[in-house]
Amino acid sequence: MKLITFSREGIRQKVGAIVNEKVIDLHVAYKSLLTFEGKIRAQQIADAFVPEDMIEFLQGGDESIEFAKKGIEYALKNETDSGYRLVYDLNEVKVEAPVPAPGKMICVGHNYREHILEMKRELPPYPVIFAKFANTVIGPQDDIPFFPISEQLDYEAEFAFVIGKRARNVSQADALDYVVGYTIVNDVTYRDIQRRTLQWLQGKTVEGSAPMGPWLVTSDELQDPSGLEVVLTVNGKERQRSNTANLVFSVQYLVEFLSNLMTLEPGDIILTGTPGGVGVARNPQVFLNDGDVVKIEIDKIGVLENRVASVKETAEVK
Q1: 3-state secondary structure 40-56
Q2: For the chain, which has fewer Cβ within 10 Å, the N-terminal or C-terminal residue?
């Protein structure tokens, strides 16, 4: 299943699924199914098990996903029910980031062997961990804002996984049971700001610096996160290419490692690192400019494509 968050005509964001270029409103579809089945408290049941918010939906775990699948089956046969739209054409909605407001965004640095070598570092004995925040998240149809605080805007293709149920002290053997699905994130980085101090955080957390999407592919569809080709192009020219088989620390390792440090919650996103070929490591260095189109493609997930758009002035704090 391809899970999305979508909005329509500026109306609130809702959880949905894409099937054959159609967008299913999962909450309305499941509520309509319950009403058809004669459930008296259809609204309340749908609110509880297939809510409109992605985080709340993921908190329902496997049970919510199974109910949503039943709603999809009903919606494909009944696109409009009792005056409610259950199904939209893809061009009728705006596709947002699949998880617009994650509780945690945990990033792994130096996790592809070739990227570690190009940065002239040794393989780390433990994962290098840093964070991005929810303010950085934008969707697959949004522009990447380029604020006039730097001239070194860089790209980083990232294979990301999303936690589906509360995880604490999870073993590698059980790790994938806690992953609800996978998506793509561009870990956009302001390099000179990143390198002002030993800590990377300030160069990683500028507004709009985490394009995400185009959807969340659930783990029942993508059962093996290894062996996936990762390619990034800028204006059609290849800049990064690798395979998730080249990760130093696998998805399973990261779930075990991180869940021994902290409790992972549904909707938390882990970015697994970027391959070699980032702009700052090239000779000569090459950074993103206004109008550049950054495209990331990962096997079995899809394509995330965003345009860079210069912002003339920084936001005024009042």
Answers
A1: CCHHHHHHHHCCCCHHH
A2: C
What tokens appear for 125 in the block?
């004995």
**Alpha helices for the chain (secondary structure H):** 26-36, 42-49, 54-59, 61-77, 113-118, 191-194, 201-204, 251-259
pLDDT digits (tens, 9 = 90+) for 41-98: 999 999 999 999 999 999 999 999 999 999 999 999 987 776 788 999 999 999 999 9
How far CA 286 is from CA of 26, 31, 239, 241, in Å, comes to: 43, 51, 10, 16
Q: Which amino acid belongs to residue 307?
A: R
C-alpha span between 31 and 11 (Å, rounded): 19
What is d(CA 80, CA 84) in angstroms, rounded to the nearest whole number? 6
pLDDT of residue 99: 98
Six-digit token pair at 215?
């959807």
Taking residue 312's Cβ as centre, other Cβ atoms within 10 Å add up to 6
The answer to whether residues 162 and 269 touch, using CB atoms and an 8 Å cutoff, is yes
Write down all domains in the chain, each with its CATH number in brackets: 2-95 (2.30.30.230), 97-310 (3.90.850.10)
Contact 49, 62 (CB under 8 A): no
Please provide the DSSP assignment of the chain as one string.
Answer: -EEEEEESTTPPPEEEEEETTEEEEHHHHHHHHHHHTT-TTHHHHHHHHS-SSHHHHHHTHHHHHHHHHHHHHHHHH-SEETTEE-EEEGGGSEEE-SSSS-S-EEEEES-BHHHHHHTT-PPPSS-EEEEE-GGGEE-TTS-EEE-TT-S-EE--EEEEEEE-S-BSS--GGGGGGGEEEEEEEE--EEHHHHTTSS--HHHH-STT-EEEEEEEEETTT----SS-EEEEEETTEEEEEEEGGGBSS-HHHHHHHHHTTS-B-TT-EEE----S--GGGSSS-----TT-EEEEEETTTEEEEEEEEE-SSPPPP-
> Are 83 and 77 in contact, with CB atoms under 8 Å apart?
no
